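tool_call: predict_structure(chain=1)
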Amino acid sequence: MLRNQSEELRALQDTLYFIGGKWRLPIINSICNGNRRFREIERSIPGITTRMLSKELKEMEMNKLVKRTVYDDSPVLVEYEPTEHCRSFGGIITEMIKWGKSHRIVVTKK
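tool_result:
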């Protein structure tokens, strides 16, 4: 079967944009592991700033990766959850974690 390399390149670039940066995958991992509130997500990711988390969550919401729900309680409660589209990336994240662990072993062998 003939492959369309320009289409494959666009798809790879879309994927890299999606996972690009230092924080996107840790945020997705945190939310998929049950952290729903902003502070829970923030606490689960060492080193992320409040500003960066806020920026990333807004972008992820725009890109239909997370759903933001605001509850009119006092104080206002905001929760984030992964969309089905985001969850479809879970298997890839799992494989990336496995690869990262095995790569670390290969690199640290003497």
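agent: Helices lie at 5-19, 24-32, 38-44, 50-62, 84-87, 90-108. Proceeding to next step.
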